[in-house]
Amino acid sequence: MAGNFFLVGLMGAGKTTVGRALARRAGKTFYDSDHEIEARTGVRVATIFEIEGEERFRDRETSVIGDLVKLNDIVLATGGGAVLRQENRQLLRRHGTVIYLRAPIDDLLARTLHDKNRPLLQTADPRAKLEALFNERDPLYREVADLVIDTSQQNVNQLIIDLEHALADHLNGRAG
Ligand SMILES: Nc1ncnc2c1ncn2[C@@H]1O[C@H](COP(=O)(O)OP(=O)(O)OP(=O)(O)O)[C@@H](O)[C@H]1O
Ligand SMILES: O=C(O)C1=C[C@@H](O)[C@@H](O)[C@H](O)C1
Ligand SMILES: [Mg+2]
Known about the structure:
It comes from Crenobacter cavernae. The protein is an alpha/beta fold.
C-alpha cells in the first residue's frame, strides 16, 4: 500500500503498538512523535512537561511532525494531543492517510494505569481526565481522520488485519 499512514487517538488507544506492527507488515519505516521528541531532547516526555510546560512541548511536537510528514512511506504514531493544533491536523491530512484509533475510556484507563510517562494522567482522578480529553478531542480526531477504527474488542493481531483491509478499501476508493 502506497503512502504514509498517520495514527491519531488518545493515550492508550494503541497508536505505538499498532503503528509499529503495521509498519513492519507494510514494509514502511515506523516513527513515533513522542519517541522522536525524546531522542532529540534526550529526556522523557514527562520531564519536558515538568521543566518547560505543555505549550513548549506542543511546539516541539509540531516541529517534529512537520519534519516527519515530509518523509515517504512511513507509519507515524502521533502523540495523543497532536490534533489540538490546526497546523498539525493540516500537516497530517496533506501528507498521508490518517487513522483514528478509538477505544472506550475503561480500556484506555486499563492500558495506561501503570505507565508514569503520561504526565496528563498523573492526577487524583485519571478517569475524569481521560473523559474530559475524550470530550474535547473526539471531534478533532474525527475531523482529521480518513478512517476510524475501534480498538476495544480485538487482540492486536486481528486489529491489524482488519485495519489493513479498511486501508486497502479506503485507498481503492471503496470506503472511508
Ligand atoms: N488493541 C489492544 N488491545 C489490548 N491492549 C492493547 C491494544 N492496543 C494497545 N494495547 C496495550 O495498551 C498499552 C498502551 O498502548 P500504546 O502505548 O500503543 O498506546 P498509545 O496510543 O501509543 O498511547 P500514547 O498516546 O500514550 O503514546 C500497551 O501496553 C499496549 O500493549
Ligand atoms: O494526550 C496528550 O496530550 C499526550 C499524549 C502523549 O502521547 C504525549 O504526547 C504527552 O504525554 C501528551
Ligand atoms: Mg504512543
